[in-house]
Amino acid sequence: MTLVIATLLLFFAGPFVLWPLIRTPDEGGDEAGR
Amino acid sequence: MSVALLDHPVYIVTLAFLGSGALLAGLVLAAFSALLSFWAGYAENGVMIQVGRRAFYATAAMILAAGVLLETALLTHDFSLAYVVEHSDLSTPIALVAAAFYGGQEGSLLYWALILGILGSASLLASARIGLRLAAYAAGIMAAILTFFLVVLVLVASPFDVLQITPPDGLGLNPVLRDGGMLIHPPVVLAGFASFAIPFSFAAAALLAGRSDAAWIAHTRRFALVAWGLQSAGLVLGMWWAYHVLGWGGYWGWDPVENVAFMPWLATTAYLHSSQVQERRGRLRGWNFGLVMLAFLLVVFGTFIVRSGIVPSVHTFAVSAIGPWFFGFLGVCLLFSVGLLAFRAGDLKSHAEPAPAVSREGAFTLQNLLLIGVIVVVFWGTMLPLVSGMLGQQRVVGPTYYERAAGPLFVALLALMAAGPLVPWRHAGAPLWRSLRWPAGAFAFLLAALLVAGVRSLPALLGLSLALAVAATVVYEYARAVGRWRLAGGGWSRALTLVVRRRRHYGAYLAHLGLAVLVLGLAASHFWQQEKDVTLLPGEQVSVAGYTLTYAGVQNRELADHSEFVAAMSLGGQTLEPARATYAGLGGQSLTHVAISSSPIADVYVVLAGTNGDGSASFRIFVNPLVSWIWAGGAIIILGVLLGNAGERRVAVAPVAARVRSPVGAS
Amino acid sequence: MIRWGIAMAVVAACVGYLVYSASGGSSEYYLTVSELRAHSPTTGDVRVAGVVQDDIQRSDGGLHLRFTEKDGTASMLVDYTGTVPDIFRPGITVVADGRLGADGVFHARAVLAKCPSRFSTTPYTS
Question: I need a surface site. Which of B72, B147, B288, C116 has the fewest CB within 10 A?
Fold first, then answer.
C-alpha cells in the first residue's frame, strides 16, 4: 500500500518537476534558468 | 521495526500508509534531485538544473506532507501508530501532544528533514545571484543529505510504523518533559542543527565548482547567520529549560548533549567573523571553508553521539539501530569534506598580502585560533570516556575540567571582543590607543570595584571586568554613530537611513552587547551562587544571602493528571510555591516544581525536597545572582541577529583588494 | 606566514597544556559497581553506575538518602545528602559521584540520574 501511495504521489509530482522540460520540448540545450 | 500485517485488505488507505508513502516518494525524489543536480551542474544544462531543483522542492513538499500527517495522527490520538502510542496518551495536554512530533527518535528525524527541506528550498530560491552551476551543486549536496535522512526514515526508523492491535490509550509523556520548555527548546535546537547543512552545502558546492565570489560569500553568510541565530536561541532556551525544570539550581552541566550543540555554534561564530576578511581582502579562504564544513561535521558527529549511546550521559541514549547509520554518514561526510579541501587546496591560497598583526584581520585570525582551541577542549572532554574506555578503565571529566581548560581561552576571547571592533583594518596607529581608553576604562573600573568588594577569584575578576569592557565598546560605537548623525543634521528619517544602511554593523554590535550581558549573568550566577539545605516547621524562617523566607505550611492539591504537595513560602510580599507533583498514571512517579522569585539582581530558587511526619518540610534553597541577565542577553543577541540580517539584497561590502579569481564560463 | 605559523603553534601549545593539566586534575574513573568492588581505587572521587534497588530510605525531609546500587551481582550502599533528580526511584540507572568509605558505604556528593529517554527506539509491546 505504501508503494501505491508513493507511486501516486510521484505521478502527481511529475508534471511540476518536469515542467521545464515540458515547457521547452525542442530546446534541450542551455536555457538561462531562473 | 516491523510493519504489522493488518487483518483487513491492504487497499484500505490509512493515515500511516499515506505518511509512509509520502516519505518513500520523497526518498525517490531526493535521490533523483541529487543525481540530476550534480550531472546537470557539471554539464551546465540549464533546463536539467531547473528540473533537479524542482525535484528538491517536491521532496520538501513530500516531507511536509508526512509531517502534517504525523501531527494529525498525534492530535487525533490515532493509536494505531506505534509512535503516537509511545509518546502521548489521552490525558496529556494538547500542546504537549503536538510537541510529541519532535519528541521521539523518528519524529525528530522527520522534523530535521523538514527543516532542511524548507530552509534548503529557501536558500535555492534566494540563489539567483550566485550562478547556476554553484546553485546546482549545492542543491545536489542538500538533496544527498536529505536522501540519507529519508533512507533512515523509510528503512530504519519510520514514524508511521503500525501496531498489530490498536491499544485504547497511549503510554504518555514522561512528567519531566511535561513543561512549556518542551514546546520551545527541542524544535529550535533541532532546527539549528539542521540549518548548518545549508552553508555547508554552498561551501562544498563552491569548492566543487572551483569558484567563490562576493555574491556567494553574502549568500553563505546569510544562511550561516540563520543557523547561528537558531542555535544561539536553542542553547539559551535549553539552559532556561534546565534551570526552571530540573531543580538542581544550574543551567549547564557540560553533558555530551550540551557539548555537541555548543561546538557547531563555536565554529560558526568563528566563521561569521573571519568571512569578513574574505569579503574585504580575499584572505582566510581556507579557514572559512574549513570552519563552515567543520560546523556541519560536528553536527553529524553530535547527532551520532546523541543517538548511539556510546558516551555516558545524563541524557539516556538507547543503543539504537540508527547509530551505525549515522556513523557511516559521518564517515562519508568527513571523507567528502577533507577530499574536497585537499583537492582545492591550491586555489584556497590567497594572493593578497597578509595584514599587520595588530589589525582587524589579525584579530579575526587570533579569534579563529582561540575558538578552535575551545572546540578542541570541549571535544576532548566529550570523547574522553570513549577513548579511555577503549584503552583501559573508563574516565570522565566534570565541569571543573571545562572551566579550567576553556576558561583562559574564553577570557582571551572576551578581551578580543572588547578591543576588536575598535581595531582598524589597516595599520593600527594612535587613534586605536585613544579609542581603547573606553573598554580599558570600563575594565579597570569594574576590576577595582570587585577588588574593593573583596572578590579574589581571578576568573571572576577577569570575566566580569572584560564583559563590561565589551559592553563599553559597543556603547562607544553607538555613541560615535549618534555623534555622526547629529553632525549630519539629525532627524528621524536620517536616523532610520543610517541604521538601515549599516544594519549589519549595528546588528552585530547589538549581538556583542547581548553576549556581554549574558556573560555577566553567567559569571555572577556561577561564582556567587549560594546554597542552603534546611528543614522547617510551619511558621519558621530561614535566611539565605540576605533573603528571608518564612514557611507557611503544606497544602494538597488535586489537578487533572496529577496531585501536588505545595509548601508555600513567603518572601517579602511574595508567595513562592515549591511543590512535589505525583502522577498517578505513571506508577506514582513524583516530580519537583521549582519555585523561583526572579529579579534583575538575583533569583531566589526553592526546591521542596520532601515533607516529614511532624509537619515539617525540607528545602534546598539557592540564591543565584544575575541569572535573568542570561535570558535578557540571549534575547538581545537574537534582536541583533534579526536586525543585522533583515532583508539584505545588495552585497554589503565592496572588496578592498584583489577579488577572488573569476571562473571560466561563469553564468 | 611564518608569523601566523608561530601564533598557531603558541595557541596550540597553550591549548594542549590547558587540556592536559585540567584533565589530569579533574577526571574521575567511571565504574560499574562490580568494577568498584573489584578494584576499589582509593585516591580521588569516582563515579559509579548502577541500578537503584527497592530499599530507599529517606530521612530529614528527603534531604538525606540511603539506597543500594546494584549491577549484576555486586551491590553497594550509598549515603547521600541533598536533592535527587525527579526520576529517582527503584529500577533506574544512577551515577553516584563520591568515594567509598572505610565502612564500606559509598559517600556520594552528587547523584546523577539518566533523563527520560526521548530517543529510545524500544518498541511498544502490549
Answer: B72
